[in-house]
User: Which sequence fits this backbone?
């Protein structure tokens, strides 16, 4: 285990993300899950069981704060050059449904005027940036191996957002995984005085959330970290 | 950990009767507490919070016509917690913007939102600003524990803002409303005669601030609460007579 700096150079320079936290242990957990038990990845019983029992202690150093254990890795550090809203249009594919007998001759009826299959115009936040940087403490070889399987970051990856052109992992003289230069917070840490409720370990979409202190890096520090 | 819907429901129970201004007249909304029942799941399907074994069955509220299934936090559950079940039972909740604090809930007008966002309530609070006044906001809302960096739900978006920064932006945008419409500022498609009227240099200076924000939900929030000097924000045509 050693302090590392991970950099993702985006191929198209655009990423879709609901918030800007984008912790690197999320994609690493996904890649690890895919390596260890790919059959379970798309199980409908997600959220419990296999995912929450995922052991990442040999890849990223575990840190315990306020009784909660998480991985020693920072939130994403990047300079958003532009941020805008793009609308995604979702429509039930009638042709596909008829082809595979989901609707039509067999007499099944799918409601498209409302509910899950309703035609929708979904807004998504798109961020333009050249590269994204993280700091962590972990096993360099294992991390590099897992990063090979991560080609996209953020959400709406199937639409082409967040494609990674190049991964760079290099040793770093300082452990800036939780606290950065001058003691600035680099990631959310559980605290009774926290100002937001969020997840601290993958999978981040589970309902298991904690009240956390949130990093707020000054622009000058951000520039130093990216240089 | 308490979730936003559960916090809002606790606040609603403190103030089940809320007065709103509709078309200039006060209207009292009485929220009702439905009958809760034993539920089989420990987690709520919608907010993912603990049910404690009591709530409402999912099938009572989440029909095939429910479109916001992507907000569900616990897909395997067939139960709703007391908060989600209670709030879904009160359909009129979705017609108004919503502010929940430790003291209760209220449905602020746009002008009131301006003051609330600039000086957020002390303690825990959650805010949702309705634009269409057709969607439930409570499961889109986030709990705020501080008044320094806050998140409010602006229809479908969660907007992170700092009150000081918002105040600074309002100071740049509100003078422009004397000449330009909100739609012009939002889209960047200004009428040339209005640019001349406002002054080219002053417009260029303001546009240098607004242009990088265009498309960002923060600008939508600024324009939502911005007030044209000398005009009541709730009486403008853009409000369409709604309090949200």
Assistant:
């Amino acid at each position: 285990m050693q302090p590392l700096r991970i950099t993702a150079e985006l191929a198209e320079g655009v990423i879709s993300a609901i918030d800007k936290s984008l912790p690197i242990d999320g994609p690493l957990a996904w890649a690890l899950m895919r390596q260890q038990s790919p059959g379970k990845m798309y199980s409908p019983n997600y959220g419990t069981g296999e995912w929450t029992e995922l052991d990442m202690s040999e890849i990223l150093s575990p840190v315990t704060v306020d009784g909660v254990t998480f991985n020693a890795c920072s939130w994403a550090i990047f300079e958003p050059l532009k941020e805008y809203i793009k609308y995604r249009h979702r429509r039930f594919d009638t042709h596909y449904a008829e082809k595979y007998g989901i609707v039509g001759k067999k007499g099944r009826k799918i409601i498209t005027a409302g509910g899950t299959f309703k035609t929708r115009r979904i807004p998504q936040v798109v961020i333009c940036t050249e590269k994204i940087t993280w700091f962590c403490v972990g096993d360099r070889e294992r991390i590099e191996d897992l990063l090979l399987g991560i080609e996209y970051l953020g959400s709406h990856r199937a639409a082409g957002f967040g494609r990674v052109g190049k991964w760079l992992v290099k040793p770093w003289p300082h452990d800036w995984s939780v606290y950065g230069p001058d003691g600035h917070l680099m990631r959310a840490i559980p605290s009774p005085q926290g100002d937001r409720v969020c997840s601290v370990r993958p999978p981040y979409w589970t309902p298991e959330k904690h009240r956390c202190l949130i990093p707020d890096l000054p622009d000058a520090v951000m520039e130093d970290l990216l240089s | 950990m308490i979730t936003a819907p559960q916090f809002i429901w606790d606040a609603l129970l403190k103030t089940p009767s809320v007065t709103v201004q509709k078309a200039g007249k006060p209207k009292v909304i009485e929220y009702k507490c439905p009958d809760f029942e034993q539920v089989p799941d420990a987690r709520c399907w919608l907010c993912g919070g603990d049910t404690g074994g009591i709530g409402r069955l999912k099938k009572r509220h989440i029909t095939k016509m429910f479109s916001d299934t992507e907000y569900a936090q616990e897909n395997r559950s067939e139960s709703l917690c007391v908060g989600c079940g209670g709030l879904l039972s009160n359909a009129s909740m979705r017609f108004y913007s919503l502010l929940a604090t430790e003291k209760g809930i209220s449905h602020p007008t746009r002008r009131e939102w301006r003051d609330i966002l600039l000086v957020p309530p002390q303690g825990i609070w959650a805010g949702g600003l309705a634009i269409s006044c057709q969607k439930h906001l409570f499961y889109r809302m986030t709990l705020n524990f501080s008044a320094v960096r806050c998140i409010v739900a602006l229809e479908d978006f969660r907007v992170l803002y700092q009150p000081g920064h918002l105040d600074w932006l309002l100071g740049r945008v509100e003078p422009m409303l004397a000449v330009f419409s909100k739609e012009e500022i939002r889209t960047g498609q200004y009428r040339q005669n209005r640019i001349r009227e406002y002054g080219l240099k002053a417009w260029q200076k303001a546009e240098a601030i607004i242009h990088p924000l265009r498309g960002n939900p923060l600008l939508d929030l600024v324009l939502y609460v911005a007030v044209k000097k000398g005009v009541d924000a709730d009486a403008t045509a853009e409000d369409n007579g709604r309090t949200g």
The first helix of chain A runs from residue 25 to 36. Chain A has five helices and eleven strands. Helices of chain A lie at 25-36, 38-41, 94-99, 140-147, 219-226. The mean pLDDT of chain A is 84.
